[in-house]
Amino acid sequence: MRKAFKYKLYPTRQQEAAMLTMLETHRRLYNRALAERKDAWEQERRSVSYVDQSAQLKIERTTNPYLALTNFSSCQATLRRLDKAFQAFFRRVKAGETAGYPRFKGRNRFATVDFPGYRNGCKLDGDRMYFQHVGRVRIKLHRPIEGTIKTVSFTRQADGWHVVFSCDLGDVHAAPHPGPLAGLDLGLKAFLVTSDGESIKPPKFYRKAEKALRRAQRRVSRRQKGSKRRAKAVQILAKAHLHITNQRRDFHHKTARKLVTQYGAIAHEELNIKGIARTRLAKSTYDVGWGQFLNILHSKAEEAGCVVIPVPAKNTTQACSACEALPETPKTLKDRVHRCTNCGYEADRDLNAALNIKRLGSSRQALTSSVDAVV
Ligand SMILES: [Zn+2]
């Protein structure tokens, strides 16, 4: 299992200048490689591969003094990042979705340099983190690193520089958790409702932070473009965004930890975020960040020996959790209570959905365990 560990870096002024230059070199490399792919396709219907671009990089490094001041593998990682963007683009096109062509990265849109191999241009040495062509940067190891370091990256954020280690923790065979099965309904009114009727509210800090965000946004728009005061306001806005991101992730971690200790198996609906986002709820959908929450839930569950079962979301809101009948007139978003015309069962709308999800999870669980038994 892989796990990421993130720490703050404190570069000297000189080291910071080297890191900024390196980011800029990588950004230009990315944009140049993107332009090459675009031109080749538009002018000659020819596609350029990662292998082509990597071979070319090797030659370019002998003549380009900026590229010479970077780690070769890290440049390859940047080209691979572009390759991934293209693969995702082609995948979306194939699936018939509206796909945005990979974009050129603006000055503030490129913040990370990856080092795909540990000890290849990067090495941890006590309270210093060595990066090739930068030097030994002070690092604050506020918690121990676990496992074997596989990849390293440094990244620039509104609150300064960070290093992220992706570590291999080996095979984590956690003992199966004896706890019960729960169904989760991810909602907007409550962040989630469990099949036991527990409702976890969306965190309050978000509303507060949102106010601060709007204030920061207004400050930016009031100030003159290109001015120093505006640059300062932009910096404050970026910090406000980062603060929300951190708080939201924190909330997701805490909620997931609580659930995996409480339950032995958790069923949740498969998310079709795009489907939801098409409605006018779009903004709040992205705000609560269910995708991130489910990722965290899955990885925490793996560590805790808890089983997570995604189930299809179809009819989980409409069907009656007591008799499985579908209503004659489907519920709208306004209907907060489930009232079954078939069996008379009444329950909170979200609780009814969570119970349906639990039932689907339970039948999947039975299915997989019988398959195990046959094998
Ligand atoms: Zn019913």
Protein model, in words:
- This protein folds into two domains: 2-168, no CATH class; 181-203 and 239-374, Nucleotidyltransferase, domain 5 (2-Layer Sandwich), CATH 3.30.420.
- Helices cover 47% and strands 19% of the residues.
- α6 packs across α9 (290-304).
- The chain is an alpha+beta fold and 375 residues long.
- The strands form three sheets. Strands 2-6-7-1-5-4-3 form a seven-stranded antiparallel beta sheet. A five-stranded mixed beta sheet has the order 10-9-8-11-12. A two-stranded antiparallel ribbon has the order 13-14.
- A hairpin with a 3-residue loop joins β4 (128-131) and β5 (135-140).
- Bound molecules: zinc ion.
- Residues 320, 322-323, 325, 340, 342-343, 345 line the site of zinc ion.
- Zinc ion (ZN) is lined by residues 320, 322-323, 325, 340, 342-343, 345.
Please give a quick description of this structure.
The protein is α+β, with helices and mostly antiparallel strands and 375 residues long. It contains 10 helices and 14 strands.
Characteristics of this structure?
375 residues, alpha+beta, Nucleotidyltransferase, domain 5, 10 helices, binds zinc ion
